[in-house]
Design a protein that fits this description.
Length: about 280
């Protein structure tokens, strides 16, 4: 039973130990250049370029054949994608999974629509890995992921929603909320996998207070937290410390955003995946 976990690069996971893994890159496209969201890319340099770039900028998701290439060689594939409500990545993975099963006798491929991104995808991937290592079969793992997903959540803090609005992922009215310097929009991934703004916070300290309050009121009780940030390691660390002060045994991991999440979360942005108490 050869298992493989595949994710698109919005998970921010570049390396994943103890199980075959492949990240399928999304791309950031400007009028001058294309940035492939893989381990070779200098993400801080890209963020710097984007500050002054002229003209249109956007992103593109992996296609079916890129997913098929990533699946190759595995008997059982779990592909974890960014929310199907904001990207074509999930649809491409679903088509690739159907083709893979048709052309590979006995193989299984299951696509998990995270209805989220970043750290919540990492949580799902870690859950799948634990089930594989525990010796469960494909169907058991698939059912267990569906159950686990009910207990993972995502909050985010954004200083600018300009790229999200320019690319039609939030309305210009929502993007305007963040229009003033020093204001952060704190929001959640909705049940439908879209951005749900919750609060306008003035300053980073206020944002961190509100982030912790929201996590507590949404059922966080000291489980796993997976934080990704765009050039904001200080706030990620501060959030970690505040949570550890309340829950000393919480399992908290910080990593930088890859290119896709950096493009949309923008400088200073933070994306926080966490488990509720029923996970
Ligand atoms: O297919 C493509 O080109 C990719 C489009 C992705 C659009 C949205 C990315 C959002 C990234 C922003 C904060 C977290 C939002 C969570 C929403 C469910 C990060």
């Amino acid at each position: 039973m050869k298992f493989k976990i595949v994710s698109d690069s919005s998970s921010n996971v570049r390396e994943f130990a103890d199980i075959p893994f492949e990240s399928v890159p999304l791309k950031i496209i400007t009028e001058e250049k294309e940035y492939v969201d893989d381990a070779n890319l200098d993400v801080p340099a890209m963020v710097e370029d984007l500050r002054t770039v002229k003209g249109k900028t956007g992103t593109s998701c992996p296609n079916v054949s890129e997913y098929l290439d990533a699946f190759e060689g595995a008997e059982n594939v779990f592909a974890v994608t960014i929310t199907s409500n904001l990207s074509g990545s999930c649809a491409a993975a679903i088509q690739a999974a159907a083709e893979y099963e048709e052309t590979h006798e006995g193989a299984h491929a299951y696509v998990v629509d995270s209805l989220s991104t970043g750290g919540e995808m990492r949580l799902i991937m870690e859950h799948i890995r634990a089930q594989v290592l525990a010796g469960l079969n494909f169907e058991q793992i698939r059912d267990s992921v569906r159950e686990y997903q009910k207990h993972t959540h995502l909050l985010f803090s954004l200083q600018s929603l300009a790229n999200l609005a320019r690319n039609g992922r939030v309305s210009p009215a929502v993007a305007k909320l963040a229009g003033v310097l020093g204001i952060r929009i704190l929001g959640a991934a909705s049940d439908e996998g879209t951005l749900q703004p919750l609060h306008k916070c003035r300053g980073e300290k206020k944002m961190l207070d509100t982030m912790v309050e929201e996590m507590l009121s949404r059922g966080f009780k000291g489980g796993k937290v997976r934080i990704s940030h765009c050039l904001n390691p200080e706030s990620a660390q501060e959030l970690k410390e505040r949570l550890l002060a309340k829950f000393p045994t919480a399992d908290i991991f910080i990593e930088p955003c890859g290119a896709l999440c950096s493009f949309y979360a923008e400088r200073g942005g933070m994306i926080v995946g966490y488990e509720d108490s029923l996970a």
